[in-house]
């Protein structure tokens, strides 16, 4: 087992390759020794994904492992374990596992934002003076080396007068573990991550200080006459990819399905019409805080795409449609009426849509709709929440309406039972808006 000190940290980390059945026997003695001498004395440490695998591969391992609490988020999961050696008088060891789940099967993440947030969460939990932190991926060199290098360089920035030496850190790590940071792609990703961390800084606000911080952010700096809101938004514009930098070849191949060529769906996050030869629709998956692909942001349907829209709702089992625009704005159509009038039904090729109920609520209209696939003989019920007081310029003077709509969404999900984090598509929200990045992004 390899031990090494993080640069500028006095915290020991242990790197492990992925645990497999053939490695369990060789790990046993080292793990038992290290847990007793290094970890149990400190009572708490973080591990990347170890105990669960050992438990699966070797049920005879002399320990008792209990899971007390899981927190599942879109990009990572944390788990609390209690580990008790069966023939030891030592107290049970409390273990927190931080499991990053947003790393793709191949390559590196598109952006470093989620990994930086994950790293910040781990560092906040792991205090100075605790025992060693176990970090592993599959081989224990590529992704592991990437995360540890980012950690070292961020510490270096704080301790050494803003010096950045990524290559130097990796050279140092490779004297302790061969091939740390395995590919050019990972090496470039580390630079992107450090650049984002330096440029954006720490934007997290403690909830107890939020009200005071909002007031402070409204004050203008004498030198620039800009507020912190404006400064932060400028940074966002600087670090965010430009539309031309997003791969969107599929959208460009179907111009007749787009209201315009602005802000087209990316190839990586675009929604696919299952079973259709022409499977493109102007819609994009978006992660929520706790769920991957919790939302689908869609362009407001046109007459020519209304059938595709209903196929998406039916196939993806979306429970709620949130409509953030009117049918007409400034005298022009912004959304085709894709639902029938009260008491009627509408036909969109093989899909029939019935309006079961329509109820006006302050600031929005709630409609209960049933979409039937006549070919398959299957039906699906969905609730549309149509906001009526959001102005065409994107400003919303009735913020209470947004809160009401969100509360109604949550209530519908509770009533229908469509809250499973293992089936995120069942809790999709459909913001239908011609200005995707305006109203939908704010919602």
Automatic annotation (TrEMBL):
Q: Which GO terms describe its molecular function?
A: protein tyrosine phosphatase activity
Q: What is this protein called?
A: Receptor-type tyrosine-protein phosphatase F
Specify the Tyrosine specific protein phosphatases domain's residue ranges.
Answer: 113-188
Residue ranges of the Tyrosine-protein phosphatase domain?
75-197, 229-443
Keywords in alphabetical order: Receptor, Signal
In Pfam terms, one family for this protein is Y_phosphatase
Signal sequence span is: 1-21
The UniProt record lists the keyword Chloroplast:
no
Is Signal among the key words of this record?
yes
Stored Gene3D superfamilies: Protein tyrosine phosphatase superfamily
Organism name = Geodia barretti
